[in-house]
Amino acid sequence: MSRPYAKLPGWVDYGLIPIINLLVAFVFAGLVVLLVGESPLHAAAVLVEGAFGNGQNIAYTLFYATNFIFTGLAVAVAFHCSLFNIGGEGQAYIGGLGVAIVCLAFDRILPWWLIFPLAILGSAAVGALWALIPAYLQAKRGSHIVITTIMFNFIAASVMVYLLVDVLKPAGSMAPQTRDFLPNAQLPKMGWMLEAFGLSVRSAPLNISFLLALVVAFLIWVLIWRTKLGYEIRTMGFSPKAARYAGISETRIIIITMMISGALAGMMALNPIMGDQHRVQLDFVTGAGFVGIAVALMGRSHPAGIVPAAILFGMLYQGGAELAFEMPAISRDMIVIIQGLVILFAGALENMFRPTIQTIFASLSPRSVGLAAAKGEGA
Amino acid sequence: MAFLDVLTQLIDATIRVSVPLLLACLAGLYSERSGIFDISLEGKMLAGAFAGAAAAAVTGSAWLGLGAAILISIFFSLVHGFASITHRGNQIVSGVAINFIAAGATIILGQAWFAQGGRTPSLTGSARFQAIELPGAAAVKDVPILGAIYSEILSGHSLLVYFAFLMVPFTWWMLFRTRFGLRLRAVGENPAAVDTAGISVAWLRYRAVICTGVLTGAAGAYLSVAQNAGFVKDMTAGKGFIALAALIFAKWKPVPAMFACLLFGFLEAASIRFQGMAWPMIGKVPVQLMQALPYILTVILLAGFIGKAIPPRAGGVPYVKER
């Protein structure tokens, strides 16, 4: 890759620099809090208390984190193939359709443990199909995947509004949503896990799709770093020319990668729909698809980074809701700013501090940055 | 005559809704022609709309509102430039970040400063850009057809509408008839050649993103200070992305960009005007289909079924000297 930067020790690359970037993002978020006339430190304290203060708060934090693990993995898988799937939002929204079809069709006849796998397949299949068209257009016709996936977000929103208003809405109902699922299509709560630690979770919607998210994160690690397909994906992402020379089909890899990505985004729909609301509502994704971008960038596209990053954003979501009670001036939209700042500093400006850090390391111990240090930047 | 009335109203509405698209689309043209992809048109427009309405509400002057809109929009453009030109970051990622920062900040600051649920106070009088009557518009109103065209369609828009449409020939002239324009196009195709000629790639690209900032600021101000009387949260509602679609549709050329924006504006105006109406032959068209049509058309175009859209060759690639 054409990185005009010298090599740094691994712990700096994967530890120090991301943490510095994250800190800078939060400093700027603190400035916004100052601008609305509140104390950033107090706000942070309220936020952490609201996210981890009691069993119910922790359960909510993990509930939101579940969404972000799925969407973060979706973006990350595409990143490994150097594709930018900005369409997670739309794929997740449409994925809700797969969940809805399975649940509405089977909730009278099958038990939840049969409906759940079917719903996983349904959401993944619909999400994957929604990603297939942009993938095909990128692979075969060279249309830029970023633009097509943005367009598909809007198209997905229109399709879902149409379906919910005109097709899926039960007769005689005013609200644009499907009928409530019967208990057979509702996922078991996971409160017991926290209650085992003596915490009370009350009605928090944390459910077994959290476990599913962790399993999927592990499977994605296996896929990317331990299988032939993963190797091909990473090769394609690193150097399409090398991949072509090695006989890897560009079309095949792009389409497969995007379909995996779309499937992961689609599976996000399981958590809010089957685990919490028990029906499909308008806008149930509420930006989780976009949070996935921040999560993937922060987690450096590695499942071991994505899970903590998702929990961090789950904390911001849950803590942010509590914060809005305490400080009415800071509504939940604060999260959107923080998300933007994290994307900016951990993503677009990820190399901002690198030259400085490099200089510091070069002066401390020239050997740690290799011979390149003598020539400095551009080596 | 009823048909003619509907038609003039429709064209009038088309012009009104096309203006923010057109300004944002031309804004994107400068940036993308210089090799900087910009998906943050939406965010900059939103930030501009908020700053414009806020400044106009506080000072009571639409012009100061426009100035504030342009300044904040340039600021975000420079952030985008700082990330993608100076630090060679990913331009898409930077654009996404700006969209989020703008979306969140306008709501938080709006609520903190004005406490009206994210709105700014209603603008009245000189705090808004008022409609301009072209000379003689009232006099020729009764002349059949031509009079209607002049008085209903051409006359009676705010200043920014005329500014937007004048920017089309100006942008064409700037890009294709000036030295700056030639260099701007060159830096988007082959920055190394521009660099070899002794011209600073970074400075040229910074100037391009500043042009983008000016125009997205104007687009935002049009939304909140001219078309509407104040800012409401998320008021751009995807217009920045439609503008981006129009830019691709127009193959990064100014005059086709105008027609693309008018087309997408027409779709929007028509979907509002004919909502729920049954069409001969087709029957009732769902309003969602009309709303999605610009996006669907763009995807079809991108797929190469209506001519091929070829972006500037160096677009999205950070320029690294001496490789």
From TrEMBL, chain A:
One of its GO terms (molecular function) is transmembrane transporter activity. Its main location: membrane. The chain crosses the membrane at residues 12-37, 57-79, 115-133, 145-165, 204-224, 253-274, 280-299, 306-324, 330-349. GO terms for cellular component: plasma membrane. Keywords: Cell membrane, Membrane, Transmembrane, Transmembrane helix. It comes from the Bacteria. It is found in: Cell membrane. Pfam families: BPD_transp_2 (PF02653). Coiled coil: none annotated. It is a multi-pass membrane protein. This is ABC transporter permease. It comes from Borborobacter arsenicus.
TrEMBL record, chain B:
Signal peptide: none annotated. The chain crosses the membrane at residues 6-29, 64-85, 92-114, 159-176, 241-267, 287-306. Keywords: Cell membrane, Membrane, Transmembrane, Transmembrane helix. Pfam families: BPD_transp_2. CDD domains: TM_PBP1_transp_TpRbsC_like. It is a multi-pass membrane protein. InterPro entries: ABC_transp_permease (IPR001851). It is found in: Cell membrane. GO terms for cellular component: plasma membrane. Its main location: membrane. GO terms for molecular function: transmembrane transporter activity. This is ABC transporter permease. It comes from Borborobacter arsenicus.
